[in-house]
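Structural prep section.
Before we set up the soaks we want a predicted structure of the protein with magnesium ion in place, mainly to decide which crystallisation condition to try first. Input record follows.
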Amino acid sequence: MELTGAEIVVRCLAEEGTEFVFGYPGGAVLNIYDEVFKQNKFKHVLVRHEQAAVHAADGYARATGRTGVALVTSGPGATNAVTGIATAYMDSIPLVVISGQVPTAAIGMDAFQEVDMVGITRPCVKHNFLVKDVRDLAETIKKAFYLASTGRPGPVVVDIPKDVTQHKTEFTYPKKVTMRSYNPVIKGHPGQIKRAVQMILDAKRPMLYTGGGVVLSNAAEELTQLTRQLGFPITSTLMGLGGYPASDPLFTGMLGMHGTYEANMAMQHCDVLIAIGARFDDRVIGNPEHFFQDGRRIIHIDIDPTSIAKRVKVDVPIVGNVKDVLAEMNKLIQVSKEKPDQAALKTWWTQIELWRSQDCMKYDRDSSLIKPQYVIEKLHQVTRGDAYVTSDVGQHQMWAAQYYKFDQPRRWINSGGLGTMGFGLPAAMGVQFAHPEAMVACVTGEGSIQMNIQELSTCKQFNLPLKIILLNNRYLGMVRQWQEFFYGNRYAESYMDALPDFAKLAESYGHVGMKIEKPEDVEGALKEAFDMKDRLVFMNFITDQKENVFPMIPAGKGLSEMILV
Amino acid sequence: MENEAGALSRVAGLFSARGYNIESLTVAPTEDATLSRMTIVTRGSDDVIEQITKQLNKLIDVVKVVDLSEAGHIERELMLVKVRAEGELREEMKRMSDIFRGRIVDVTDKTYTIELTGAGYKLDAFLEALDKDAILETVRSGASGIGRGDRMLKV
Ligand SMILES: Cc1cc2nc3c(=O)[nH]c(=O)nc-3n(C[C@H](O)[C@H](O)[C@H](O)COP(=O)(O)OP(=O)(O)OC[C@H]3O[C@@H](n4cnc5c(N)ncnc54)[C@H](O)[C@@H]3O)c2cc1C
Ligand SMILES: Cc1ncc(C[n+]2csc(CCOP(=O)(O)OP(=O)(O)O)c2C)c(N)n1
Ligand SMILES: [Mg+2]
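Run finished without errors. Recording the tokens verbatim:
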């Protein structure tokens, strides 16, 4: 039977097992919306801004590992989606974003609501398509899902001109696609894996450095097995948190700019570094020259060859899927007669424990003001460490990462690579759609929350019982911290004046609002909020304005040049 | 790479976004109409060239990348030069063209247009050898390259 392009779009999404489409209608996608109306295979979620549609699809993808789907109209709908697309791109999140386009005959004519979406998004997508012929539509959508979810995941844009959604063609959905120019490597090279295992067994001061790739490849189990059977210290980037249980003694905490003293010192002084799905970001190794002052051999496992040897020289590169490579390593280590040098390992651990005894995460627990760290610790306690936690960008993000001890993967959901303020609330919506029964907390700042606060309306429409934890310091705190440290306390435009009464604001959207001003009220308020299982509760915690995130490696400094409290 | 609309802009965009320099870039369809072949001349340390190769391979439209300079290869570029050809210059230009194995492909009573093919350095040498004031216009195609002997880039 012949179907219109619009019918085909909807059928393809259903074929892909799409549960939710996050979107916003407009002229160029009206045909598609008409078909969305007529079907019941997936649910459409109407957001209040296209950026939020993409972040919500992204939150859904991060929490489930499945591909998130967003649908936006041409022109302003498409440009509004770009920040969301770039956010997903930087963190390698699988998304398919369908955008409407002006009719093919109008392309290039400066038509109403025309933008060159393929051109605009080219540098921030894994790939993108402009579908000019309805006969290519089904296969293109198949390719989009295939590209988004395989290899190093990422967002894929499918731009569809309005006339293509009207034209008819025979519909068959391809079962499989192969592309001669795209063949991601999954299994690591056996010889390289052997060399790596030998190097691991010979190490005197080993360190496991893990990242987002562990979470993306669902390799938490393999990583845990590897770490425990070796007894090696392990650290994680901001993006890898939860890939290894944070409450485990082998875990030394997050590393990098706001990482722990012990993790950064061990990273600097180890003799064998095993990098697993992590990309040696500048927020992680600090000044590369300083990093290289101490020599170490590096094993690097990554599915994307461009991540390897990009910022550091590597001794044993292994291109492959973390899950497959670690499973292979675990096997080899198990059957190997050699074991790691226990005496050397013991000396190394003694050193690490010495660093750990610095207790770099301490903070003033007797303050009469609410300390943001305390709120996160209590959040962890009240939710028994079992919540999904999304965050925005700033100091609150770092405190959430440092003090909510993530024991499971896909629980910590934040924008690391792009650092997009406004991500937290819409991402939390996507998470809650994916896991309707789960506790979902959005840790945010008064600056960030106002970048997508309109989504409180979406939350009302769909009854999403999120818990918004606003750490309200009346500052763009992360900016203020840099100004305090590096700009002589000149707080240029970092004070947040004329804030709304957030509790009332939440109430006006039909939610529950709370304002918490005293440390002794923190725990009770959190309990009360999480007891309201079917309501969104917006918790405005008035926190210590001048609190800073420690430890901190100033930009341009090395890993062992941290500022401690 | 796939002979698709936009493939060229992905390559060009990659070079500018990552700050790699392009000295020249040529592209045209191959005998297989679904494929185009591109020759890029670029410069960089070994590390940079390694990253460029990997980044190009990562582009979905790119089917295969070969660093021709790793082994024996032939490089050819086409240049057309319009020169003044009046008075004693007329004989001089003809002679220079012959020495460099050029061909005069267009003639007026005031000008010659000389066609020259060769590696980039040979074309540079030709321009060097000419009297600057005699050169009216030049156009160069950018280099195309192919491996020597059995070395083949085939899909
Ligand atoms: C305010 C702020 C402060 C920050 N401070 C810090 C900090 O202190 N510490 C810190 O760590 N980060 C910090 N970040 C985050 C930082 O900017 C980077 O986003 C982060 O460090 C990158 O993490 P990653 O190396 O794990 O890479 P990701 O971006 O998660 O990349 C994943 C890597 O794994 C690979 N991969 C993907 N899938 C697979 C697979 N299946 N198999 C194998 N490999 C795979 C990818 O190719 C990629 O190389 C901060 C961000 C902000 C906004
Ligand atoms: C969209 C966007 N604009 C600007 C920035 C730069 N920036 C990073 S953190 C920050 C301050 C965030 O303030 P707030 O949300 O109140 O969080 P706090 O640091 O106070 O916890 C700013 C402005 C950004 N990351 N994203
Ligand atoms: Mg703030």
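Observations: The interface with chain B takes residues 118-119, 122-123, 126-127, 130, 147, 179-182, 304-306, 309-310 of chain A (CB under 8 Å).
Flagged for discussion at group meeting.
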